[in-house]
Amino acid sequence: MTKSFDKTEWGLLLALPVLICLTFLLPAWVVNYIQVSLGTGLVALGVMIQMRAGLVSFGQGLYFCIGGYTAGLAGKFLGISDLFVLLVMGLLASVVIAFLLGFLLRRYREIFFAMLSLAVSMILFGLLSSTEELGSTDGFNLPQPTYLGWAPEGDLGETVLYVVTCVVTLGLALGLNRVLRSPLGYINEAIRENELRVEYLGTSAHRAVHITYVIAAAVSAAGGVLWAMALGHVDPEMTNWTTSGQFVFVSILAGTGNIAAPLIGTFLLEIVRVYAVEISPNTWQMILGTLMLLTIIFLPRGLWSLIASAKRKTAAPKASEIMEGN
Question: At what angle do helices 154-181 and 183-200 cross, to 10 degrees?
């Protein structure tokens, strides 16, 4: 029997027309930041679903880069520009690589998992930075996207890409929410609390971690494709440790309480960075660091915990009224 939509999924569905309408209401630069943050937000979602299992990936930029470079290489050497084909190719490349690496990473937890994921990511960074055929540290440009043979240009092309980005991002977020509500999602939460008991119950923690790792890789690669097509460029910085650290930053800042949290948190981070650079061009990193410090101290479960606590306070009086009525 299929599960009915929960409040989060209804919210994602309602957010789609709202996001599409924003492209006609907001300035172009704000719409551009929304589009970019949707792509990177998918990578933050990949980090978040692993954090639900107690795993912190400091190398998620690996699959962000694989998605972007797969699209770029397909366009540069194969002449493929169809966005849907590029998405499929990015997903397949990431799933194959994640499936193979998963046999190694699924055996480790805590700092060992974090450092191993980072090490693999930095290997790719080194390879791309030293490959002159791929532009070395400068990277290379991507072709204008097409859609099943249709090639819109100019403002129409930008609008279509934005709409497709919204549809793909929210569609994947809805699918991930279903994953969190599935047995796999509950097993991951149990692994975070006590992995040994999960094994005693007859469930393979290694297999659950492996599947989650592959899912996170696929989602992150999709984000890499969308991000790269929006900017029209890829470079090795996509897999650098600073980029991967940004995704972890967003996951901590936003919290893991809801699938929408990383998407919102990514946009907020982009806006904060814009104004931080404007206010203090030479020390803007200090502003972001202070924001992270304050979040960890006062909101250890992220910004979403504010919404969760507000819901609990609203529900408490209603529950007491029902009890009094009975």
Answer: 40
Contact criterion met (CB below 8 Å) for 303 and 254: yes
Residue 70 CB coordination number (10 Å): 24
Q: Does domain 7-285 have CATH number 1.10.357?
A: no
Answer for the pair 264, 169: CB distance below 8 angstroms, yes or no.
no
d(Cα 34, Cα 29) in Å, to the nearest integer? Answer: 9
Distance CA 67, CA 90 (A): 4
The answer to whether 43 touches 223, Cβ cutoff 8 Å, is yes
Q: What percent of the chain has pLDDT over 90?
A: 59
* DSSP-derived secondary structure for 40-102: HHHHHHHHHHHHTTT---TTTHHHHHHHHHHHHHHHHHS---BHHHHHHHHHHHHHHHHHHHH
Q: What angle do CA 151, 155, 159 make, to 5 degrees?
A: 75
Closest listed residue to residue 145, CA positions, set 83, 228, 222: 83
Could you identify the residue written with the tokens 């929304």? 34
Tens digit of pLDDT for each residue in 275-290?
A: 888 888 888 888 888 8
What is the per-residue pLDDT for 313?
A: 67
The pLDDT of 161-183, averaged and rounded, is 94
Residues in CB range of 43: below 8 A, 6 or more apart:
60, 61, 63, 64, 219, 220, 223, 224, 247
- Could you tell me the pLDDT band of residue 318, with boundaries at 50, 70 and 90? low
**64 within 8 A of 228, measured Cβ to Cβ:** no
The answer to whether the CB of 70 falls within 8 A of the CB of 251 is: no
Instruction: Specify the residue for token string 């202070």.
Output: 290
Instruction: Find the mean pLDDT for residues 38-43.
Output: 94
pTM across the whole model: 0.90
